[in-house]
Amino acid sequence: MKFPGMGARISHHYRFSLHAIFSSFPMASRAIILEEDLLAAPDFFSYFNQTSWLLDVDPSLFCISAWNDLGALHISHHPHRLYRVETHAGYGWMLTRQFFDEIYPVWKSSTEEHDWDVWLRDAKIRGGRECIIPDVSRTFHNSASGAHIKTLLAQAHFVGHAVTSQADIVLHRVDRMIQEKYEEDLYGILESDNIYYLNTTLHPCSRNFLPRNFT
After folding, report:
1. Per UniProt, what is the membrane topology (predicted)?
2. What HEC string does 173-196 produce?
3. Which residues are catalytic?
């Protein structure tokens, strides 16, 4: 088969592979995708074992990911924490057979160039659903380059990414990741005494955005 570009070729590979997985294992209700250039943390499977049930009970979720896009070394310090995000994080993730059966017939055609992960993030494909991610990633991108990112840029992006080296981590409050409970906790934070709302029209990057003597 001739592809218009690398993105379309990779997308076709993912579609074919996921179909092969669920066809080969008809009793499997979920699958984990782990690319060949990823290193897995010691608790990689434990992480998914503790979170996979959320996909069965919460229809507002479409994946569990082992990767946090914003998990840089200077801000990610809590391997037991989880979040919900409105995107597909990738780099080691789990989906259900039900979700794959839904997206398989409408998977973007390999006759036009595209990125499968960008397509999967589309609001029409996600249908408003979210993904669970960890504060500290459970995978590390070990390749020097990829289809869209090369050498030095890849190193700059991935080397500063936090990954846990601990085993047997017990995730905290996994049940609070269910949408109703998660939003309840968010509103609790936003309505607490620790929140200060700034009445300003300044851009957040402005030098004077925060008032003086403000902690």
Report:
1. Single-pass type II membrane protein
2. CHHHHCHHHHHHHHHHHHCCCCCC
3. 117
